[in-house]
Specification:
Phosphorylase Kinase, domain 1, alpha+beta, 31% helix, globular, D-amino Acid Aminotransferase, Chain A, domain 1, 5-stranded antiparallel β-sheet
Length: 300
């Protein structure tokens, strides 16, 4: 059969970032990823979309999707835990039907798993929503912390702070007791222990390359009776990476993620309620460079 034209399957923004895919398969769209059901497996396509303040922005970050896929694949190989990734190669059956060259490097073929409806967040430093909760209550998700901690202080011991997975709007931080009540004690404790173990392994690896992992989120699913690590893992979209040689507690840290995007939007006059404005070229370029730097530091 004739291959459809690329613009029938993909939509790009003016900067050349892949925003949407339209393969004629059952599809679920996330903020960044499009997930296609192949029947026996899932095809996860990482687009260049970027979100902030719960909005998908009208312009993407060129190359971001490939980088997220490559970084997740790298970590899946490093961590030594059961995961869902089968291959990052495009299935031959699709390659013979469609012009899928724009998807090369941004595809994960994965096992199908029953998603566990909690995000497993581990925090080693005090920042983000954890900092806000600590300033209000002295604790994070039921984990009581010492008084007098500063922004971005390192915690004596990493803490597990699960969150409910919201289809729309913000995820909600909850005590582990809530997760245990929903999932059962055995699975709840297993997810906590596994998350802390993965975080510890990743922090040791990153520290040897001059990076601190301030916090991160993991997602898990079940294949049969097995718990497997799914979705992305330890990318700048799901984690806060800081340069160890530029770490100064008591203030916000320069991070390898969408920091430039959040800062520009906060200063742009946008009300964070209406449709967001397009990003200027320099913000797109700075964000792309930070994502690339994080990947290069970790993998070379």
């Amino acid at each position: 059969m004739n291959k459809p034209q690329p613009d029938a399957l993909y939509r790009f923004d003016q900067a050349g970032a892949l925003l949407e895919t339209h393969l004629p398969l059952p599809r679920k769209c996330g903020k960044v990823r499009d997930v296609y059901d192949l029947g026996h497996a899932l095809l996860i396509v990482s687009t260049d979309r970027i979100s902030a303040f719960d909005f998908i922005l009208p312009c993407g970050i060129p190359g971001k999707g490939q980088l997220l896929t490559q970084m997740s694949s790298f970590w899946f190989e490093q961590l030594g835990v059961r995961h869902h990734l089968v291959t990052t190669e495009i299935p031959p059956s699709l390659a013979t039907q469609f012009d899928i060259e724009p998807l090369r490097g941004r595809v994960m073929l994965t096992e199908k798993a029953e998603v566990i409806p909690f995000e497993c967040v581990v925090r080693g430093y005090l920042e983000g929503s954890g900092l806000s909760e600590y300033q209000d209550t002295g604790a994070i998700c039921g984990n009581q912390l010492p008084s007098g901690l500063l922004q971005c202080d390192r915690l004596t011991t990493p803490i597990f702070t699960p969150a409910t997975k919201a289809e729309e709007g913000h995820d909600e931080n909850v005590p582990i007791e809530r997760m245990i009540n929903d999932l059962g004690e055995t699975l709840g404790h297993h997810l906590r222990d596994l998350s802390l173990k993965i975080y510890s392994t990743a922090c040791e690896f990153a520290a040897a390359r001059g990076l601190l992992i301030a916090d991160t989120k993991f997602e898990f699913g079940k294949v049969g009776d097995e718990v497997v690590l799914i979705d992305e893992v330890l990318t700048p979209d799901s984690s806060r990476f800081w340069a160890a040689d530029n770490y100064h507690p008591g203030q916000a840290q320069a991070s390898f993620d969408k920091q430039f995007v959040r800062e520009w939007l906060s200063q742009s006059g946008w009300d964070k309620q209406s449709e967001p404005p397009a990003l200027p070229t320099e913000v797109i370029e700075q964000t792309a460079a930070k994502y690339q730097e994080a990947y290069d530091r970790l993998t070379t």
